[in-house]
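Retro notes, item 3 of 5
We never archived the inputs for the flavin-adenine dinucleotide complex last cycle. Fixing that now. Sequence and ligand:
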Amino acid sequence: MGDFSFELNEDQLQVIKWVHDFAEDVVRPAGAEWDEREETPWPIIEAAAEIGLYSFDFIANCFADPTGQLLPAVNEEMSWGDAGIALSIFGSTLALAGIFANGTPEQVGEWAPQCFGSAGDLKLAAFCVSEADAGSDVSQLKTRASYDEATDTWTLNGTKTWITNGGIADVHVVVASVDSELGSRGQASFVVPPKTPGLSQGQKFKKMGIRASHTAEVVLEEVKVPGSCLLGGREQLDERLVRAREGKSGKSQAAMATFEASRPTVAAQAVGIARAAYEYALDYARQRTTFGKAIVQHQAIAFKLADMRTRIDASRLLYQRAAWMGMNHRPYMAGEGSMSKLFAGETAVWVTEQAIQILGGNGYVREHPVERWHRDSKIYTIFEGTSEIQRLIIARAVSGAKIG
Ligand SMILES: Cc1cc2nc3c(=O)[nH]c(=O)nc-3n(C[C@H](O)[C@H](O)[C@H](O)COP(=O)(O)OP(=O)(O)OC[C@H]3O[C@@H](n4cnc5c(N)ncnc54)[C@H](O)[C@@H]3O)c2cc1C
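Structure as it came back at the time:
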């Protein structure tokens, strides 16, 4: 018997079933309502907190799975329920990942639980990188952080945009430039604690999909945070800046590796939407008859379903591989994390569109969820690195060429 296996173990299956049941019983039935309301679904987050699903402990438990499979798998289940609500529940995890990636153990201990709070006292977190003129090209961040040695205080100024949970979060993790000449290597991450003066919400965006997830600008005007809020600490930052000024390689590559490692989880969310649409379309195709037979018996429809299922399974295998590699510190020599996000994102858009087609007129109206799932899916070719940026990463990794 070899070691290789595609099977999840009993513990993993149990957790996944538990999350699936919540997605089926609580999240899926609420999807249409919160899409229409375009608001953060607080009662659903509260329900998730009450059973321990929205909590730092649960996420830490998933992170601790040595196979790397649990975190993406539970993300797939929740997005299968509803992607917008799932993002409201897992959006805080983005900030948590930023704290984990850059913070000291003490900082993780202090801030990670505050990203979630507890039932009856919910907290949210936001990860603030993007700006109006710096989305794909994060080297162009204009938000500045300046340090005052005398008071051990950092002052942050700038405007972030497209921020999930922006302005309504308790903990904001903000990436800012400390030395603009060094581009992305002159940047650092800061925790802005709850209720810090100077941080406010700018405009809230009205979106095409994932409308239960709050997306807004975050305005930072003379926001003052103590030195202890610089993730990783002063010494580490100074060493990194010295290396960058000397032109040596360093932490910015490590940051890229962290992004690569989080992509399988984002890919899994896209797989969840695609799977929901595929299952719905399959059921529909079995029941709907035209020309005297179920439409699933028309080869044109049956082949669509075959292609949908094939691409969904391929997407899942890609995210499972990338998640395993990330957890086991295998280098992504061919951009495998990006491959998973690229393929799953584009699959979700394609599969949900096929599902609309299979439902015909019913696919185009709000009585059925597939039009919503199609709207929700589109974000997966845009955020966390657009499809073009994923292709850039893969192309550079496999060719070694300078591709702009
Ligand atoms: C709903 C939503 C939630 C988000 N949540 C967050 C969040 O929580 N935190 C956060 O920091 N950000 C968040 N974002 C921002 C998101 O990550 C950016 O929108 C994304 O990175 C793209 O940046 P941009 O919109 O500026 O597009 P641009 O960078 O302006 O890109 C425009 C187009 O040009 C293409 N392009 C750009 N450069 C290249 C290149 N070199 N080669 C080929 N094509 C290229 C892009 O692929 C895209 O098609 C969110 C965005 C949305 C819409």
